[in-house]
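Problem 12. The chain below contains 208 residues. Write out its predicted structure in token notation.
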Amino acid sequence: KIGPMPMCCAEFSTGGGFHMGFSLHVGYEPVEQLLGMTYSYGIRVTAMGLGGSLHGDEDFGYVINNGDVASGRARHTVETTFSIAGIEPYLQIRPVERLPLVATIGLIAGFPVGSKYTQIEQLVEPTDPNLTFETGTRTRGTVNADLPGLNNPYVAAAIGVGYRYAIDAQRSIEPRLEAVLGLQSITSAVSWGVNSYRLGVNVHETIS
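Solution.
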């Protein structure tokens, strides 16, 4: 139960969403190697969305209508908007020198810049439109509010791989895939973890 949200029975185990994001980074590549591998380190300024949709069905008993008995089922839906802006120190290594494959590990400390949720409970079974909740409609418990008790900053680990293509001596591009693993709940009100994937392209400019 989150703040004024009247939902008390549904439990969500999965959800999903899609967002755009961007980052700017500054890095340094030492001449010496780390455990025999070329490496670099740096820091990113990152903005990304972590919101999504959660759905859960709940069987709540029986509905009796004119002597007919049917199972009752409600669908709980939570739509969230949760965006962060923060910093991301990282370490990048090239495991095989002759290949432009790179692996990155980093830590994100993000500060919420948008955090709202919408909740609604909908009667999905029986499907007879004349059967309603006590509200007189087939929905109830609608709430639109700010997410309370946000953990600030929100902390997550980022682990990824990329393939760095050299354009010339100073410039390169790096298609990459990263997993962002939340290290804490987004809110102290309930246990609510968020993991995500980032697919993108880094553009590098080397300054000698």
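Discussion. The mean pLDDT is 88. Students who got a different answer should revisit the alignment rule from Section 12.3.
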